[in-house]
Amino acid sequence: MKTLTEEQIKERLEKLEYWDLEEGFLVTSLDFKDFADAFAMMTRIAFEAEALQHHPEWSNVYNNLTIRLNTHDADGITEKDFKLATRIEEIIKG
After folding, report:
1. For residue 1, is it within any domain?
2. CB 31 within 8 A of CB 63
3. Taking a C-beta distance cutoff of 8 angstroms, is the pair 1, 75 a contact?
4. In a domain, 25, yes or no
5. Can you give the CATH number for the domain in which 85 is found?
6. Model confidence over 18-43: pLDDT tens digits?
7. Phi and psi of 32, rounded to 5°?
8. How many structural domains comprise the chain?
C-alpha cells in the first residue's frame, strides 16, 4: 500500500471535521457524556475497523476517546486511514 504525500494528506484532511495530523498519524480526540457513551462509540468503531481490516491505536479515559490512525505496514498514512477516519466521522455524526 502506497503512503500519501504531505500535500495529499492535507488535501484530504480538509474534508474531515474532527481530524488533525500529528507526528505521522491522523488524530482525533472526542469527548462524550460519560464513560458508557465513550465505550459504546468504541464498540461501534471496532466493528467498522474490523470490517475494513484496519485497526486504530486508541485510548479511553472516562469520557474521552483519542484515536490515532496510521498504516503500520506502509509506515505512514494511506487511503486506508482516510477510509476509516471518514467512517468514524459518519458514526459520530449519526
Report:
1. no
2. yes
3. no
4. yes
5. 3.30.1360.20
6. 999 999 999 999 999 999 999 999 99
7. -120, 175
8. 1
